[in-house]
Amino acid sequence: MKSYNLIKPEIRIIGLDDTSFIPHSKGKIGVIGVVFRGGYWLEDLMKTEITIDGFDATENISSMIINSPHYQQLQLIMLNGIMFGGFNIVNMKQLSLTTKLPILSVIRKKPVFSSIQKALRNFPNFKERWKAILDAGKIIETTARNSKSKIYFQAIGISEKDAQKIIRLTSTMSNIPEVLRVAHIVASGIGSI
Amino acid sequence: MKSYNLIKPEIRIIGLDDTSFIPHSKGKIGVIGVVFRGGYWLEDLMKTEITIDGFDATENISSMIINSPHYQQLQLIMLNGIMFGGFNIVNMKQLSLTTKLPILSVIRKKPVFSSIQKALRNFPNFKERWKAILDAGKIIETTARNSKSKIYFQAIGISEKDAQKIIRLTSTMSNIPEVLRVAHIVASGIGSI
């Protein structure tokens, strides 16, 4: 587990979100990686592609990050949930292992696991996908900028306490970390890949 | 000419830049429009397409802006130069007329007009393209964040003095307005459309 003796306000984070697509369509979609300094400013932006409802998100995101010129400076990966491009689930444990970075998934709503499990049973590699869901670990409730509005996170390779600190420190403009707010705006705004 | 009695630090600006492409290739490229509050934060992002070396940038950018949900709140359009997608030149006068907004083009280097004119002579509608160059008006030298490093701008529908004020006010992170720094990072980062 990464130990943060002191969390710098300008900690370098990559935040990830997927581009929009028509549900049940086939093909590829983009995943946008936004490099941010703390909750303050955009430093760079990168893109990779994954298969809609495929199972290549973990590998492709990992390659994009490892091959980025920012890799050595990155301190943390933040995900806007673990489901990208439909049911292309990111295995946070695996992603942390290959990138050697701690991972935080931050979500606004608690997922309904029974519905996800039901949907995943339609895929041939159900077990692997379900394992990715379980590997993300327990869902922890917290607050960020707005102390009355709950958000939720899952953390790999970073303590619950440090995760909460970083979420609060970087949620400068809204109730979610700025890197995820910006990744979402960019990924939605550019439309399909 | 738009008169700014008081320029708010959180003035709503749209900044435009084009996605990368291989020179002399054919087809379409993307133009990214980033909506920013002053020099501070990203509010939204939109995209349109233009033809490489075509002459549809003015019209397509104008449509994108007018049809945006932010249109009524926008105070200013900023361009990263007037040449998009090769020699697809934005006519600033025309764009200001159709959008009813002032336009600022901000560049780091003074263009070499003799080279541009020579290149434009290869296009059938040379006169129209050259008119778009002339319609952008005179190039004014200024400084932004770094008082030692010169930058240049062209302004339509806004006074030289107000333009300089807004450039300085919004260049919060680097030597160019933040909306253009971010538009450039996004447009370059997403690669081709």
Short characterization:
By secondary structure, the first copy, chain A, is of the alpha+beta class. Helix content of chain A is about 30%, strand content about 25%.
Could you list some keywords that capture this structure?
homodimer, 193 residues, alpha+beta, archaeoglobus fulgidus dsm 4304 fold, seven-stranded mixed beta sheet, two-stranded antiparallel sheet, 6 helices
- The pLDDT mean of chain A sits at 94
User: Largest interface, per-chain counts?
Assistant: A-B, 17 and 17 residues
Structural class of chain A: alpha+beta
Radius of gyration of chain A: 16 Å
β-strand percent of chain A reads: 25-35%
Just give the CATH class of chain A. Alpha Beta
Topology-level CATH name of chain A = archaeoglobus fulgidus dsm 4304 fold
Shape of chain A: globular
Strand order of the largest sheet of chain A: 3-2-1-4-7-9-8
User: What would you call the quaternary organization?
Assistant: homodimer
Q: How many individual β-strands of chain A?
A: 9
* Known CATH architecture of chain A: 2-Layer Sandwich
The number of helical runs of chain A is 6
> How many separate structural domains of chain A?
1
CATH superfamily of chain A: archaeoglobus fulgidus dsm 4304 superfamily
Helix-residue proportion of chain A: 25-40%
Give the ordered list of helices and strands of chain A. EEEHEEEHEHHEEHH
- Cα distance spanning the termini of chain A: 35 Å
Q: Please summarize the sheet with the most strands of chain A.
A: 7 strands, mixed
Poorly predicted spans of chain A: none
